[in-house]
Amino acid sequence: MQDIDKMVARLKENIARVMVGKESAVELLLCALLCRGHVLIEDVPGVGKTTLVSALARSLDCSFKRIQFTPDVTPSDVTGFSMINMKTGDMEFHQGAVMSQIVLADEINRTSPKTQSSLLEAMQENQVTVDQ
Q: What whole-number distance in Å separates Cα of residue 33 and Cα of residue 91?
């Protein structure tokens, strides 16, 4: 138990180097992380939501992607897609943004229901359906 307390304290310290005045948000973020949950961060624009999540990812040495949802984002932008390599003739998989350890999905309500469901499948089912 002491190891977890020390690890959480070190994470808080590291994130505090970047984020000032967001101690409660950092604590809730770390609670969700330890519970393998998801976090909804609501705040006014420009207060550092992306910086906070990016700092968490860097502190944990995790890969991080941010998806800015707009009406033209497709499910394959989220999940990835296979494409033929014209030089070799082989199919190559191009990873989508959700193929990351920490993903920040910004303004998900602005995209189509099909695109939303591609993200929600990854969140709920811990799996990704590609090229369907």
A: 35
